[in-house]
Amino acid sequence: MYLTYIIDNYEQLPSIVVFLHSHKNGWRKAWHTDTPGHSNVNSLDLLNLDFVRKAGYVNLRCNWGPGCQLRDRHNAHVTPEHWHSIFGNNTTMPEQIAAACCAQFAVSREQVLARRKDEYEHYRNWLLDTPFPDQTSGRVMEYLWHIIFGKQSVFCPDSDRCYCEVYGRC
To answer: Residue 35: which residues within 8 A CB-CB, separation 6 or more?
Structure first.
């Protein structure tokens, strides 16, 4: 759905787009939401929009687990086969790929527009056509969003700084 939204609205994107999971809150369903009560409503209320505009992309999860600990950086989810089918054979796959989990993030219009619409169509086609199960392909995308939106392959901001910059919880 994230890619479909970008493709369908590419020419008229709002200044900031926030991609969230469909559940509102709660420990069991929203354990990966870092704000009080594990609430996406709180996430949106606290989100520092000026920081999103400045950074271009922010992961809404500041907690490093899972995804940013050193043990998670060995590309267990993104294989060379995945990488090259998504980004092309003429690209070099990084030695390490890391970001806090769970594919909830905010991105500026400018950062989305840094890639052409046909690139997003290619990513969506990969998801639709890949022989990998949905759980695998979804996990691959989870650990590529930050790269797609211009961050280094290891994007693990200091947790305290992240909470301060993203949510104003300094």
So the answer is: 42, 43, 46, 167
Chain-centre distance for alpha carbon 123: 14
pTM: 0.93
Contact 123, 3 (CB under 8 A): yes
Q: What is the pLDDT of residues 34-54, one digit of tens each?
A: 887 888 888 999 999 999 999
| Distance between CA atoms of residues 166 and 170, nearest Å | 10
Cα separation, 119 vs 137, in Å, equals 17
β-pair type (154-155, 98-99): parallel
Q: What angle do CA 43, 48, 50 make, to 5 degrees?
A: 150
**What's the rounded Cα separation, in Å, for the pair 38 and 30?**
6
